[in-house]
Amino acid sequence: MSGLQTQDLSSALGLTKASTDQTPAVTSSSETKPKKKICCACPDTKKLRDECIVEHGESACSKWIEAHRLCLRSEGFNV
Predict the structure, then answer these.
(1) Cβ neighbours of residue 5 closer than 8 Å, sequence gap 6 or more
(2) Which residue spans traverse the membrane (predicted)?
(3) How far is CA 59 from CA 9, 40, 53, 54, 72, in A?
(4) 3-class SS string, the chain
(5) Does the annotation flag 39 for ligand binding?
(6) Does residue 49 contact residue 30 with C-beta atoms inside 8 Å?
């Protein structure tokens, strides 16, 4: 009987492994979904944008704001 239980257990583990192997494939096929959180994407342009806004105000920093938006769009965010 223990041989049958081992076989059932390995079959169940095989099914579990197969189902988990398929999960990443589904998410990787969706390339439009961002891979990072928006707060962690584009740290360089975010820093420049934030520093400019603090020092000069939002109206004077449209160049940096747009650069950050372009970077976020290239990372897959819809901004």
Answers:
(1) none
(2) none
(3) 64, 24, 8, 11, 20
(4) CHHHHHHHHHHHHHHHHHHHHHHHHHHHHCCCCCCCCCCCCCHHHHHHHHHHHHHHCHHHCHHHHHHHHHHHHHCCCCC
(5) yes
(6) no
Residues 6+ away with beta carbon under 8 Å from 19: none
Domain boundaries, the chain: 1-30, 31-79
pLDDT per residue over 8-65, tens digit each?
Answer: 544 444 444 444 444 444 444 445 677 889 999 999 999 999 999 999 999 999 999 9
**31-79, CATH topology level:** Helix Hairpins (1.10.287)
In this predicted structure, what is the pLDDT of residue 34? 74
